[in-house]
Design a protein that fits this description.
It contains nine helices and seven strands. The longest helix is centred in the middle third of the chain and has 19 residues. By secondary structure, it is α/β, with parallel strands linked by helices. Strands 3-2-1-4-5-7-6 form a seven-stranded mixed sheet. It is about 35% helix and about 20% strand. The N terminus is likely disordered. Helix 2 packs across helix 3. It holds the Pfam family Methyltransf_25.
Length: about 300
């Protein structure tokens, strides 16, 4: 499959920050620079993805072609290669530097011979697939497209008869700290969530061709022409004391929250965040014993009628 070159697209390369991410100005992000970070974050979430893929594997048996739409650096693509050793995998993304990492990962996993990439913007780029997919996976990429219903319909068009579309959308906001951390006003993360929710709404409204829709994903999958819709939520639970890479993820998430949302928070919360991300402050997440990672992501799937 040819490597096409387009501007970076709307695949959610902030996979793991979820909405605690790099903001939504992703046209201005340097994906090559962010790639190592995105990769390490996705690796941290591997247990959650493995549970989600095991759930899908109960109903999707021996798929010939799996498409990872909005793949980022290909961590989940690699897990698909391991979960389904007989399948060909195509990672689709708007960023060529991230797909380079996906190809390198497939090579390390010994799956390069059944791994391909496709560069371009969702959902139009899916028309360039050579074959219909038996399983099309979109992890937090659909919500970056103005008309989510049309995007799902475009995904369904690229499914084989009897093929499955699975989208990871929704769940719960991640938690890293107790409600009361000993300074500042208790409940910081809940207030950050409220600001995030407003920003997310604005981001959706400003997307080209934005269409407001009730975010009932099973209903949206049904409207796109799928049957047998089902949903399941998967947990990432890394209790305190966390390993270094989980601590690094928390520090990075809160640092980006401070950069992206700081102006929308009140001065007290900004000051609290400043302390939490300051490596020289003993009360920061770099040093606190009570840091944890608790995240919940929901997967919705449906089957194209035979």
């Amino acid at each position: 499959m040819a490597h096409h070159h387009h501007a970076p697209g709307h695949g959610d390369h902030r996979h793991e920050q979820g909405r605690h991410g790099h903001g939504h100005d992703h046209e201005h992000l340097d994906w090559a620079e962010l790639a190592p970070l995105l990769e390490s974050q996705a690796e941290l979430f591997t247990p959650l993805y493995e549970h989600a893929l095991a759930w899908l594997a109960k109903e999707v048996t021996e798929p010939g072609l799996i498409v990872d739409a909005g793949s980022g650096p290909g961590v989940i693509s690699g897990l698909f290669a391991e979960t389904f050793p007989g399948a060909r995998i195509v990672a689709v993304d708007g960023s060529e530097p991230l797909l380079e990492r996906a190809r390198a990962r497939a090579e390390r996993l010994g799956a390069a011979d059944r791994f391909a990439t496709l560069t371009g913007d969702m959902p139009g780029v899916l028309a360039e697939l050579d074959y219909p997919a038996d399983l099309l996976w979109a992890s937090r990429s659909i919500h970056h497209l103005g008309d989510q219903g049309a995007a799902l319909a475009a995904c369904v068009e690229r499914l084989a008869r009897g093929g499955t579309l699975a989208v990871m959308e929704g769940g719960l906001s991640s938690r890293f700290l107790p409600r009361d951390i000993g300074f500042g006003r208790p409940g910081l993360q809940a207030r950050i969530d409220a600001v995030e929710a407003d920003r997310f709404t604005r981001m959706r409204e400003e997307l080209p061709g934005s269409v407001a829709v009730v975010e009932d994903w099973p209903a949206m999958l049904t409207a796109a022409g799928l049957h047998h819709t089902r949903s399941r939520t998967f947990l990432l639970d890394i209790p305190a004391p966390v390993p270094d890479r989980a601590r690094a993820y928390v520090a990075d998430s809160l640092t980006r929250t401070r950069e992206v949302l700081g102006e929308y928070l009140d001065p007290d919360d900004r000051a609290t965040l400043d302390r939490l991300v300051d490596p020289d402050d003993p009360a920061s997440v770099h040093h606190r014993p009570d840091v944890f990672v608790l995240a919940a992501h929901t997967v919705h799937s449906g089957v194209r009628p035979v």
